[in-house]
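Quick one: structure tokens for this chain, please?
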Amino acid sequence: MISKLVIKSKSLDKISLQIVESVLSNELQAKDIAFIQLIDSYASHFKSLEVLTEAETYSSVTIISRVLFEHYIYMKYILEQDSEIRARRFLEHAKKERSRIYEDIYADTEKGKKIRDEYNLNFDEIKKLVYETAYMKRKEENNQTYKEILENKRNWFNHDGTIKSFNNLCDYLDEDVNYQILYQSWSLDIHARGNKHFSITEVTDQHGYLELITHDPEEINMVLHAIQILTMNIIRALYSSYGLKKELKLFDINLAYKLKK
């Protein structure tokens, strides 16, 4: 039997606004913007997880949990230390990744033409927009800012030159076990290099049957349990970081009440 989620998405939905309200008297800093973006996206994916489990549909639970884990790791890393510096690197990297998508559309290449033809985009209108917004000038400025902030490192989280992959980042944050449970184990589901949802049972030397396995209750329960612990931890960490003692206390009281039911 699959356990129900104790933590609900509504606990996450209000955190972005609470962060904004906590710094209302000051200008939002890079770390505030990064946390708002990450927790808002986390809440959206967690809502999807909630909807699926309530509908007793579990085939995509591991995929969503993998995304949630990645968000969790990024928030934990930014919170750990040098939050403002790390948040700026995260935001610059995200902006750079988005710009690459736009540049592929704008590029006067065979690939760019294919994209524009596929989505019926007018090249002249795109060039006009690029000119009017001085995009190319801003691109050069952004590239320079990107290099300065990331210090020419490929990964935005590689602050000491040794964290060269997401796996390394999880090791650095002492999250190697959760990396295996929530991330690495489900790479087949993400990248379509195989499928764990079939079992072949041999009946004779020449005959057998293929059984469709929609989900493994033990695996799903393990994943949901781990995700709820990480969600609880990141909510508490954010509340503590912003000095939201009242909100933290209320969250803990509500959680304790639900666990007793």
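The mean pLDDT is 86.
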